[in-house]
Structures are given as C-alpha cells and as structure tokens.
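Chapter summary example.
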Amino acid sequence: MTATLSRPGRAAPPAVRRAPSGGRGRTPAARRRYALTVLAFLLPSAVPLAMFVLGPMVAAAWISLTDWNLLAPASWVGFDNYAKLLTDPKTGDVFLHTLAYIAGYLPLVYLGGLAIALGLNTALRGRTLLRGVYFLPVVTSWIVVALVWRWLLNPANGVVNTVLAWFGIEGPGWWTDPAWAMPSIILASAWKDLGFVMVILLAGLQAIDPALLEAARVDGAGWWRRLVSIILPLLSPATFFVIVISLINGFQVFDQVYAMTGGGPGCATQVVVQQIYDLTFRYGRAGEASALSWMLFVVILAVTVVQIRGQRKWVNYG
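The structure predicted for these 318 residues follows.
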C-alpha cells in the first residue's frame, strides 16, 4: 500500500473535476450553444429524412385509414382497408410470390458473391480489373439490366435458348411461361447484385488474419476445412449484413418485375410492391395501397428484428 505525502507548509493541489460530456454541468448558455452545435450537424441529414421518409410514412398511415382515389376528397373508413386486404386471397398470393423470389434469390446471390470474393482474394492476375467488371452491373440502371435479360431470355431468339439448342436442349419459355417467369427475374436480380455482395464479402475476407489460415494449413487442414472452420465463422459479420440487406431488398422487389414481366404472365410474378403500384395508379385505391405498404413494413420490421436477435447465436465478432 502506498500513501501520498505532501511537503510541510504546502497544501495538496486541489482535485481537478471534469465537466460531464453532453453539456451537463455547464451553464445554461453553454448548454444552448452545445445543443445548437449538435443541431447544426444533424440538420443536413434530419431535414431530408423528415421530408422524404418520416413525412411520407405518416401520410401513408393516415391514407391507409381512408378511401381515396387520388382525385376526390378522401373519406374516413378506419381499419376497413386492412380488413379487406387480410381477407383478400390476392394479398396472400403476392406475399407468397415475394417469398418465392427471396427463396431463390438469396442463396444464389450469396453463394455466387462468395465464390467470386474467394477467387478475387487470391493472387489472381488482373483481379483489380475483374472487381470493376463484376461491380459494373450494380451501378447500372435496373431498367437497362431488365431489358437486357429480357432479350437474353427471349424464348424465340434469345441468346440463352440459342446456346441450349446447340446442345440439343429445348429452352423453356422463360418470362413468357408462368412456371419460368419468376426464375427469370431471380437470374437477372442475382446477376445484377453479385458485385455488391462480392465487395462486402471480399472486405470481410481481407480482414481475416492470414496467420490463422497458414497455421491451419500447416496443421494439415485442407481447403474445405479452412473454409468451414475458419473463413466462414470469421466472415459471419459480413454474411449477416448481406443477408439483412438482401432480405429487405427482396421484400421490396419491383423494378425488374415491372420491366421484365409487369407482374405476369397470369399474375405469376405479381409481388407486393407491384400490387401496391397497381392498387394506386391502375385501380385508384390509394387507401388499400397505403395499408398494404404498412403491412409490408411490419413484415420487414419483424423479419429484421428476428435476424438481429438471432445473430447472437451464430455471428462471431471476435
């Protein structure tokens, strides 16, 4: 144990007390200046957020409780729009189509992005150029991508069916066939988003300590064992981010559906956002469309909360 001694005749120096952060312990004028400074930094983001996100959400919540055709004055109907949607079989169909899209899109885009990221994480010649090439579809307009894939998958003279015919395989009807229309959209969507997933997973791969992989290789672990026991567990934070973002985007799929099939053939690819669009601008039922958009919001929120709670069991941040 040590003791602090002071010289005779000299008082011990007074203890220095720091003012708490956040403006507490300061004068009212200092607290006001602190609050104004924080507000000045937040305004450039807060104003657009309130105008273009929070404001429309509140407006949609109010419209969902009315009967409005975008022209005549809205009339109050309470929760009738929600009750009508919950009893309408079409609502279940569009949600099932959206889930079918996610079920095909998510594994394809993740596994494809992971394969590309693993390949580009090696000493591959020209890998910088390849990263740019793979990322190029991400910054390309969805309308352009959808039209290109509509041409590639044309049942009559598309490139894909032409190549299949060289091997004696009769190509399917793709976006003109109800059974193949959704797989067509899934292929186009996965191809466009592979670059985004690749970049996220590649960043996660480059954050892994090479010494861990080298030690495992010296101990006799093969490529598959290193992938399963080291790479994937350490890549779990990036994987979690990709899954959350991909699921949110998957529930909001619209552009490629609108450009490639328009929800057809025979409503085989009618998804939730497409239904919201049709209810609003084709049928003039903005109240039901707003109610459906809030139902979609609740579903996305619930799925995201489940993922955030479940990530504690498999995401490794160590």
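To summarize the output: Residues 1-8 have pLDDT under 50 and may be disordered.
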